[in-house]
Amino acid sequence: MLPIVICPDCGQQAEMDQVLTAQSNQNVIYICPSCSCVIRNIETNKG
Ligand SMILES: [Zn+2]
Fold first, then answer.
1. What would the pLDDT profile of 16-37 be if each residue is shown by its tens digit?
2. What is the pLDDT of residue 12?
3. CA 47 to ligand 1 centroid distance, Å
4. What is the distance between the alpha carbons of residues 28 and 10, in angstroms, rounded to a whole number?
5. How many folded domains does the chain comprise?
6. Domain of 13, in residue numbers
7. CA of residue 13 to ligand 1 center, whole Å
């Protein structure tokens, strides 16, 4: 079971592994599969 992320814009739920993309600078961005919004520095449970 992967953690679920809920899009703050449209409320779509998706597995974290499918919607979070790690950047080379270690930032993480969220790309919603439903509304295609992009959110930087979304909170995760990491660390
Ligand atoms: Zn969305």
1. 888 888 888 878 888 998 999 9
2. 94
3. 25
4. 19
5. 1
6. 4-40
7. 8
